[in-house]
Amino acid sequence: MRKILVVNSKGGCGKTTLATNLAVALAARGEDVALADADRQKSSLSWIKRRPKTMTPIEGLNWTKEDRIGGKDKSLDAIVIDGPGGLRSELAKNLIAEASDIIVPVLASAFDWDATLKFLDGISDIKRVRKGKADIFVVANRINKRSTQVADLERTFAEKGYPLLARISDRVLYARHAAAGSGIFDYSDSKSHEIRGQWHPLLQAVDS
Length: 208
Ligand SMILES: Nc1ncnc2c1ncn2[C@@H]1O[C@H](COP(=O)(O)OP(=O)(O)OP(=O)(O)O)[C@@H](O)[C@H]1O
Ligand SMILES: [Mg+2]
Hints:
By secondary structure, the chain is α/β, with parallel strands linked by helices. It contains 9 helices and 7 strands, in the order βαβαββαβααβαβααα.
């Protein structure tokens, strides 16, 4: 059973988008997956409520309070966790203490970088991560092909010891799926084929 935590203290970087699509990707290949929402806004739980009954089921878990964490672990293949905003709360510390993989989304906007680098240093300092029991993966989100900022992002993060694992394009499709309770791995149309390819490094990483 893996626990994949999607987290960053920076708001709006794509935590819920990554968590929901990752849960769909794992469910689509037959895994028994739950999506645990540890964010007070409960966006992931709202997304599950919108999810059509005809689609591969994803169980929703409310992990917004510390005493709700855990319990269901053994019966599942994976729990994807939509993380809370900060690192300081006990909830965040407990989640990091249990996670097998930690995914940190970052936007191409330079305004996000300092806060995210500070956040990455903070989690790297946590004993479990230092001991190599949890891996950190940085994912660039909302990348625009025409923008040169991704090269700067790539270089800045690599220099600090956090190379980018994957690059996810900015596509309206993600907002559409968010509204419909679905994800890009729910459909195997050719249009989302290229987009799905961008997720492969991330899927491979959480598999190993
Ligand atoms: N790759 C993408 N392409 C297009 N839109 C995106 C992408 N990723 C996220 N978005 C949009 O950006 C907004 C913020 O994304 P999201 O809600 O996933 O971030 P978050 O980190 O969970 O935010 P919060 O801190 O509020 O929980 C949403 O409207 C979402 O649809
Ligand atoms: Mg969110």
